[in-house]
Amino acid sequence: MKQILALLLSAALVIPALPAWAGDDCYADYKAKQDNPLRLHYGVIRLDGACDAGSARAEVGARLSREGWVLLNVLSVFGKDGLKERKDSAGRYFLRF
C-alpha cells in the first residue's frame, strides 16, 4: 500500500511539470549556414527526441550536418499549434530535414 501511495504521489508531482503539448508532436525552428559560398536559412523541423531546447540543439545539429549545414541556433521549441505561423518564413526548409 505504501508503494502505491508513493507512486501516486510521485506521478502527481511529475505530471504537472510536463509541457502542455508533451503528448503531441514537437517542433523547433532554427537558423543554419553553409560556407563556400555562404548560405543561410531559417527552417522548421519535427523533433523525434525529447521536446526541450537542449535536446533539440543536439538533434537538429546532427540532422543538418548530414546535409552539410551547420546549426547556428535553435530559436524555439513548440507544439503543432505553432506550425502555421512559421510555414511561410521557413519556405522550402519547412519540415525538410
Q: Which short descriptors sum up this protein?
A:
single chain, 97 residues, alpha+beta, 3-stranded antiparallel β-sheet, 29% strand, DUF3718 domain-containing protein, signal
What proportion of the residues is helical, as a percent range? 25-40%
- Whole-number total of structural domains: 1
Question: What's the mean pLDDT score?
Answer: 85
| Radius of gyration from CA coordinates | 17 Å
The largest sheet has its strands arranged as 2-1-3
**Tally of alpha and pi helices:** 3
Protein name: DUF3718 domain-containing protein
Signal peptide: 1-22
Keywords: Signal
Describe the structure.
The N and C termini lie far apart (48 Å). The chain has one domain (22-93). The chain has 3 helices and 3 strands; from the N terminus they run αββαβα. A 3-stranded antiparallel β-sheet has the order 2-1-3. The protein is α+β, with helices and mostly antiparallel strands and 97 residues long. Helix content is 35%, strand content 29%. Residues 4-9 and 12-22 have low confidence and may be disordered. It has helices at residues 2-14, 53-65, 83-90, and strands at residues 26-34, 39-47, 70-79.
